[in-house]
Amino acid sequence: MRGLVYNGPYDVTVHDVPDARVEAPTDAVVRITTTNICGSDLHMYEGRTDVEKGKVLGHENMGIVEEVGDAVGTVRVGDRVSLPFNIACGACDNCEKGLTAFCLRANPGQAGAAYGYASMGPYDGGQAERLRVPWADFNCLTLPPGTEHELDYTMLSDIFPTGWHGVELAKMRPGESVAIWGAGPVGLLAAHSARIMGASEVYVVDNQHTDRLELAEKAGATPIDRSKGDPIAQITDLHGGEVDRGVDAVGYQAHNPDGEEQPEIVLNELVHAVKATGGIGVVGVYLPEDPGAANELAKEGKLAFDYGTFFFKGQSMGTGQCNTKNYNARLRDLITAGRAEPGFLVSHELPLEQAAHGYDQFDKRVEGWTKVVLHPGQAA
Ligand SMILES: NC(=O)c1ccc[n+]([C@@H]2O[C@H](COP(=O)([O-])OP(=O)(O)OC[C@H]3O[C@@H](n4cnc5c(N)ncnc54)[C@H](O)[C@@H]3O)[C@@H](O)[C@H]2O)c1
Ligand SMILES: [Zn+2]
Ligand SMILES: [Zn+2]
Question: Where do the Alcohol dehydrogenase-like N-terminal domain residues begin and end (predicted)?
């Protein structure tokens, strides 16, 4: 089968890879209809993780079940399914609590596993014709049959639940205001989620990316272009003070409008933009080690965080990978009912064979490349 392979920094190619197959009786094999390129893939693409060469990337996957192992009971061949990016066993202490991003059995020695991802276990990704899905009964979310809402349902594997999770981690309640840093796909879907959850005001901050900030506005948020001045002052001026909640949808590669990396800048701006006793949700990724970081502290995964102000303001912070399975069924039903349309940010649909071009353009944040989805079945 064909798959998108990581060869080294800024070098990915589609070529023949071993077929995905049923390896355990609880596995399924899914024929991928749509698989997305994620901002998380870009950390690997840029050589800013320890992902091994030869890995098939792709953790945002959906498709049709083609084969099931003998012990698979609820999922059937022919089902249309979305696969949470976290691979979870469904039976460990953390999975029992719904904390599927921290499964204790899928990646022994570490909490949490994912498809095609650095440090998240030996699993290949789904930017390929087929994908092996472990513990298939637990990890497949069944979708209505057919092809309707494909671009919306494809966001259920990661970024719609992740955006929602960011707002939940910030503990937002209906009627409250929220400021989201990052107008990438995750930030845009955090804004979409906050609107659905009843935010009174939503602000989305980014560096001068007019295409992304325009989408934020379409999603019902007030765009804040940080190249036009201090984002905190812009928000507090417009809002008449600090906001109730904040979300980091940027992560450790945060930079200023000139492109200079400042890994702590978003966390610190959030502390200052959010009210005393307010909540901050961090879904942007941070790493325990980052040898490619701009300063010595950050190379060791440490940040110059304004902890004193955070403490004095009595704020709370929630962090981590999204427990996708905690949200995806309800978010599916919001899409089916026409109450959510997370596919609004898709800018490009490409055949798998053109994936390398998609990586290049999305990585450069070329104007208009807001979210790339790949269709392995589409002719090149
Ligand atoms: N926690 C999870 O489960 C989870 C899941 C998916 C993605 N992520 C992470 O979420 C982050 C965002 O993902 P994405 O797909 O939207 O990526 P992306 O790279 O497309 O978007 C990030 C956006 O942040 C902007 N940005 C950079 N510095 C900024 C700053 N100082 N202030 C404001 N905006 C700034 C960039 O211009 C870009 O538009 C990444 O770190 C990704 O790894 C986490
Ligand atoms: Zn992702
Ligand atoms: Zn588990």
Answer: 25-137
What CA–CA distances, in Å, run from 260 to 265, 293, 307? Answer: 11, 11, 23
Mean pLDDT of the chain: 97
What lies within 8 Å, CB to CB, of 258 at 6+ separation is none
Level-2 CATH architecture, domain 2-158+323-375: Alpha-Beta Complex (3.90)
Going by C-alpha positions, the residue among 130, 82, 128, 159 that lies closest to residue 371 is 159
Distance CA 212, CA 345 (A): 9
Least confident interval from 89-93, 110-114, 289-293: 289-293
CATH of region 159-319, choose from 3.40.350.10, 3.40.50.720, 2.30.30.100, 2.40.10.120: 3.40.50.720
Q: How far apart are CA 241 and CA 256, in angstroms?
A: 23
pTM of the model: 0.97
**CA of 86 relative to ligand 3 center, distance in Å:** 10
* 16-38: average pLDDT: 98
Domain ranges of the chain: 2-158+323-375, 159-319
The residue whose CA has the least distance to atom 8 of ligand 1 is: 284
Query: Which residue's CA is the closest to the ligand 1 atom numbered 39?
Result: 184
Mutate to test the pocket of ligand 1, among 46, 193, 250, 319 (most ligand atoms within 8 A of CB): 250
Q: Which residues contact 280 (CB under 8 A, 6 or more apart)?
A: 169, 170, 245, 246, 247, 248, 267, 270, 271, 274, 315, 316, 317, 318
Locate the ligand 1 atom nearest the alpha carbon of residue 183 and give its number: 39
Residue found by looking up tokens 């303001």 in the block: 313
Q: Which atom of ligand 1 is nearest to the CA of 187?
A: 16
- Condensed to tens digits (0 to 9), the pLDDT of residues 197-219 reads 999 999 999 997 889 999 999 99
* Ligand 1 pocket residues where CB is under 6 Å: 38-40, 42-43, 158-159, 162, 181-187, 205-207, 209, 212, 226, 249-251, 254-255, 265-266, 283-285, 321-322, 365
Q: H or E element: which one contains 324?
A: none
Structure tokens that stand for 178 in this block: 């929220």
CA-nearest residue, atom 43 of ligand 1: 40
> In 326-345, which positions are buried (b, 16+ CB within 10 angstroms) versus exposed (e)?
bbbeebbebbeeeebebbbb
